[in-house]
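To whoever is on call:

I kicked off a structure prediction for a single chain this morning and the downstream step that reads the tokens threw a length-mismatch warning. I double-checked the sequence; it's 264 residues and nothing unusual in it as far as I can see. Pasting both halves so you can look.
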Amino acid sequence: LVSLPGTGDQAVRQGFHRLLRLPEAPLLQPQCAVPWNGANHPRATGKLVNPHAGCPDRPSWWKGANASTCTVFIQGMYEYAHYMQDHFDDNGWGCAYRSLQTCVSWYRMQFYSDKEVPGITEIQKLLQRIDEAHKDIVIGSKKWIGTVEGMYLLQDYLGVECRMMYCQDTSDMASQAPQMLQHLETEGTPIMMGAGDKAFTLVGLCFDGVSGEVAYMIVDPHYTGADTLKTILQKGWVGWKNLEFFEQSTNGGFINCCLPMRPR
């Protein structure tokens, strides 16, 4: 959509939403106008945007039947956050912080929030304030966080609700693929995943409802190199992952997922 006259006024926007039967999403704010002549998104910061768009709709190793296979991706745009960005060395411990940053960027780029994506030290300060278990966290330390902390931070910083999905192991996670699929179809937001002591961001799912075969489109925050899309895709830092990938990450342990909701 392009920006319509008078849409700087919330009441005018609400009227247009009712008239055009638009969903409850910030579609008509002036800053949502289509960028002129291929310009960048107005809230882009220079990081890679939607790198998964360079991947195929299904993994090359997919064996599911065409008729029963469904592929769904997140709705909208996000920026890929990973190790070593913003002149900050978090290699080896900051993966969940980066996954959180990716999720926050989604809300910014859909105009649900105008807050900046917080840096790692800012995230630690927020956590110190809102979570009793982290009241003594040393700001600037290499303190690992997980998806539960990610949920607390999304709720406080953006005011959005989240749903947690607890999986005992990869088999349990595979059995919950329909719920993940539904989340992507209805909410369309990235999912924070905590697999053992590693974090990932899920932005798509390929699922065969008959055989139960499932593949996960993962944006991996453990990447430490430059934002070169060709390299990232060729090396698999963004791409389809199977259950074996998560088994190796967890050593057969638990997987927790934070499913953020759209504001209502």
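Update from on-call: the warning came from a stale cache, not from the record. Cleared it. Sanity check on the structure: The beta strands are 69-73, 162-167, 191-195, 198-208, 214-219, 238-241, 255-260.
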